[in-house]
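**Fold tokens**
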Amino acid sequence: MGYQKSDERIIVLAMMSLPRIGKRTVHRFLAEYSSRLPEDASILSNAIRETVNGVSRKVAAGINDSDVEVALEKATKLMDEATQKGIYILSWGDLPERVKSIPDPPVMLFLKGNRTLINDNSFAIIGTRNPTERGIEVAKAFAFEIAKSGYVVVSGLAKGCDAAAHRGCLDAEGKTIAVLAHGLDQVYPAENRELAEEIVERQGCLVSEYAPGTQPLANYFVERDRLQSGLSLGVIVAETGLKSGTLHTVGFAEGQKRPLACWSPDTGEEEVPESRLGNLDLIKTDRAIPIRTRRDLKVFVENCLNGSYEGTGAGENTEKLEEGGNPSQTGRKTEPTPGFETPMLPLGDVRLGPGARNHLRS
């Protein structure tokens, strides 16, 4: 049958393919058995039934040894096929702590490309699928600046602001993570297939919690959003309306205690585009830190790295800040250390439109 007792990934894949077993049940199983994985299929079947019985006796009674054996065979085949497609499966024990600690964490991740990136200091740049030209330029500019300073840019490969963020990062010769809402054997939307290929070719990474062959469904995009913020030290909104799906990620960021910032657009416009009303609301209600200048972005990034926003963890290889003079999201004052090593570059260096210099002032 090919069941390898030492491979937690095959067991989890098998369990997830059984009817009416989801992430929470798998987490219960791992909490009990991860340090002593069952040695053969029959013992595994008993362990699964015992775990499921604590959730639903009816579901547990419906699981028989042959079901588990078939599931293990399918899981082994799926893992072999994933390997052939360049997809690596990361088990629960190997997930980054910042991902494991979020509410409703994944049980495993599928990765294609440079899988070490998920452990690096990252910042999510998100926004509406239907931005204005200025919103696209701002997403590119934020990503360019962050990538030039040596940090990873996370986004969702959707059209609009997400694609712009990935592009801005690549223009800066940086590395970016695209979190997808389907199996990594496909790319949605199809118009971003070449962008996805370029991300992998240039040492970036595609990430999903869904097995190859999984089609994109509406609720998967919402689930995907929690991983964008979960992988990141901070979340930055480029442009969003009041009803944009971007606000799902905003809500997850708040629940995960991730610092949240957003571009602060000019308020002197005669008519503010609908795709920008969400920015104004996030700032007005004090849910997000406004960013208008390079220094604003620099302070936000450094404070995220140093854990200066209350309730957040520090980034890798950084130390806690002393209390100082820059206001944080919670009102606590801090003075960032010089962690933004690369000078903020003029936006003319980014492949933007002719008016881009005015969108993020020095």
